[in-house]
Each structure stands twice: as C-alpha cells, then as structure tokens.
Design a protein that fits this description.
There is one protein chain. The chain is α+β, with helices and mostly antiparallel strands. The protein contains 14 helices and seven strands. The chain has helices at residues 3-49, 63-81, 86-93, 102-126, 133-147, 152-159, 163-187, 195-204, 231-249, 254-261, 287-293, 297-304, 331-359, 370-375, and strands at residues 52-56, 59-62, 212-220, 280-283, 311-315, 319-328, 366-368. The strands form two sheets. The chain has a four-stranded antiparallel β-sheet with strand order 4-3-6-5, sandwiched between helices. The longest helix has 47 residues, at 3-49. It starts with a helix and ends with a helix.
Length: 379
C-alpha cells in the first residue's frame, strides 16, 4: 500500500468515526429528552397525587376541602369540650383517652363530612346545576368581607385554606344549597300538623319561640379599666341591686328606678339596632339579644325561665342585673312560627335521611389516598 492509499484510508476511517459520533449525540439527546419528560411526568404525578385526600365516585376530595372540614370538626369539638387555651387544646388532641386517639377520630369525622359534601355536589351536577356568575359574585363579596376583618395570617389560621380555596368551597356549597332546595321541592311534602301537635312542640321548647319584654337595671362589676372591683365594692353594688328591687316590688315607677340605678347609660342602638328606651328590651333567646342588651347567659336563662310580673336579681360574671318580666308571648302569638319550624325540621330530617341512603351506595365508597391522609397530623 503506497503512502497516498494510507492517507486516504486514514481520512475515511476518521470520517466514519465522525459520523458515528453524531449518531451517538443524537441518541444521547433522545435519551436525555425522554428522561426529562419522564422526570416531569413523575414530578407532576407526585405533586398531583399529593393534592387530594380521597376520591368518591371517581371525584377527588382535595386536600384543601378536607382541611376545611377537619378544621370545622376540631373547632366544634374544642367548643363542646370547653377548651379555650392553646395548652388545653394541645393536651386534648395529643392524649389517648379510653383507647381512642381524639385527633384520628376527628380526621375520620372530617372525611365523612367531605364525602357527604362531594356526594351532594355530584348529585347537583347530575341535576344540571352549576357554579354560575351570580354565585361567583355573591361568594366573592362574602369572602372579601371576611378578609377585610382578618389579616392573611388570621384568615389561614381560622379556615386552614387560602381565600381562593375558600371561595371554591363556598361556591360548591351554594350549588349544593340550590340542589337541596330543588330536591325538597320535588320529593318532600310537609305534614299537616294539628294545633295539639304544635302546642306540644311549643311547650317542649318555649324559649326557642317566645319573645320576652323586660325592664332591667345593670350594675357593673368591672372598673373603667376593665379590672374586677374589690369584694367590698361588689358587695356595695349588690346592696344597690337589693334597694332597686325593693323599690320595684313596692310599686315605684320602674322607669324612675332604672334611671336612678342603672350604670349602662349608652344606647344599645349604637350597635346597629333600632332605638331602645333605657332599661327596656324585647328579648329573644339568642346571642343577638345578649350583645344588644349586655346580657350574660345566666341573665338570659333567668329571663326565659320566668313569667310576666316576676322580678329578680341575677349575679353574673361582669354585671349584676335587676330584672322585671313585663310581658311574654304565648302559643297563639307564635303558632305560625312553630308550624314553620316543625315543617323545616321535618324537611331537614327527610333530606338527611336521603343523604344517608346515598352514602350507603357502593359507588360512593371513599377510596383514601393513604399517603396524603396519613401525613395529616396535629403537629
């Protein structure tokens, strides 16, 4: 082989090597692309699979929806148990009682509520109901009002979801309420109640229906700086209360006694209610009346346990009250309200029974996303 052939052969060999390298580069590019796509798919799957807690009939219960219901369950339990401080709450939720983990119990209850929420939304969609612009606007206005009263941190601590997530939840709630109304219209027929049935209902729970007119005096047990008065000062207030009660029982004009003794002079109408005379009120068994008339729960209970003409002194935590019952509604006054209440309660019972039966259908069984569900803990 001459020198020229050797050179040509070397060049050909080098060229072949160069071609093979380009193919390898292309192959590597393809492999890298496939790997990147796979990583992206796996990352999306991992993130997406962590976004929901369970499914019902193939529909996902998002983590935000579940967290919302869990927070509602925790708050309700804390209220029932009378837990007020963070220390009390922490101890309750982390202490096993009678072999039961209270936090796990709350998680299960929240999952059941989430299931009912999703079943009703599925039923609403099957009825053709949707989240429309009206619902969006109404809910947005409500969320804006709530946000205006809380910082972002307070909002998240209260609801455990973002404003956008709460907006979505309440939009679904609105659709569910529309479905519930439509379902009851189509399937529920109210019973005809006799006067005897309605009066029996009234007598069983009069305070839920009655209005009570009262005249009352309030004596403060706190100083202007909101500190509890001394025992001697409180004893003096109790003596004044006895004096005022005695004058009322002896027939002195009650308006004169109120003007002489009551220490709450500001008009309750400043809270947004209609104009009220000093020391006068028409009371319902509600927090609204408590706020409007500065009534503690003990005073409210006393009022609804007594009849027109009764007088008495109630020693509360912050106030001492001298109260006279002026008038009170009777069954005939509130019969229509009793009937409406009985019909409403019967409709709720009918709907809840239907919801319970839907929940027993196998297609609505909960399929938990164990990884996400188990990851939710009190700490």
């Amino acid at each position: 082989m001459d020198k020229k052939d050797s050179i040509n052969k070397a060049k050909a060999s080098k060229k072949k090597k160069l071609i093979r390298t380009e193919r390898e580069k292309n192959r590597i590019k393809i492999i890298v692309t496939v790997v990147i796509v796979l990583l992206a798919v796996l990352t999306y799957y991992f993130i997406d699979s962590g976004s929901y807690v369970a499914t019902v009939d193939g529909r996902r219960i998002s983590k935000s929806v579940y967290q919302f219901f869990l927070q509602q369950q925790l708050s309700a339990t804390e209220s029932e148990e009378g837990l007020t401080t963070q220390e009390e709450k922490d101890k309750f939720w982390t202490t096993i009682a009678e072999g039961q983990d209270p936090y796990e119990t709350a998680k299960r209850e929240a999952l059941n509520y989430s299931k009912e929420f999703m079943i009703q939304y599925i039923k609403a969609q099957e009825m053709g109901l949707k989240i429309d612009s009206t619902i969006k606007e109404q809910v947005a206005s409500m969320i804006a009002s709530v946000k205006g009263q809380l910082t972002d941190r307070q909002f998240k601590e209260t609801y455990k979801v973002t404003a956008a997530e709460l907006q979505s939840i309440y939009e679904i709630y609105s659709v569910i309420e529309n479905f519930k109304s439509r379902y009851l219209e189509e399937h529920f027929e109210a019973e005809t109640y006799t006067d005897e049935q309605m009066e029996a209902e009234y007598n069983e729970d009069r305070k839920s229906y009655d209005n009570v007119d009262i005249s009352y005096i309030i004596l403060k047990k706190l100083s202007e700086s909101s500190e509890t008065l001394s025992e001697e000062e409180i004893a003096g207030k109790k003596e004044k209360a006895e004096e005022a009660l005695s004058k009322i029982q002896q027939g002195e004009p009650i308006d004169d006694v109120i003007a002489e003794y009551t220490e709450v002079k500001d008009d309750p109408s400043e809270t947004g209610t209609e104009q009220n005379d000093l020391g006068k009120g028409t009371i319902t068994y509600s927090q609204t009346s408590m706020y409007q008339y500065y009534l503690e729960l003990d005073a409210l209970e006393w009022i609804f346990d007594h009849e027109p003409g009764d007088t008495g002194i109630i020693d509360g935590d912050y106030f001492i009250y001298v109260v006279k019952i002026e008038d009170r509604t009777t069954f005939d006054d509130v019969k229509d309200n009793v009937k409406s209440s009985m019909e409403y309660n019967a409709a709720q019972e009918f709907y809840n029974s239907a919801l319970e039966s839907w929940g027993l259908e196998s297609k609505y069984n909960i399929i938990k996303n164990e990884r996400v569900y188990d990851s939710i803990s009190y700490r």
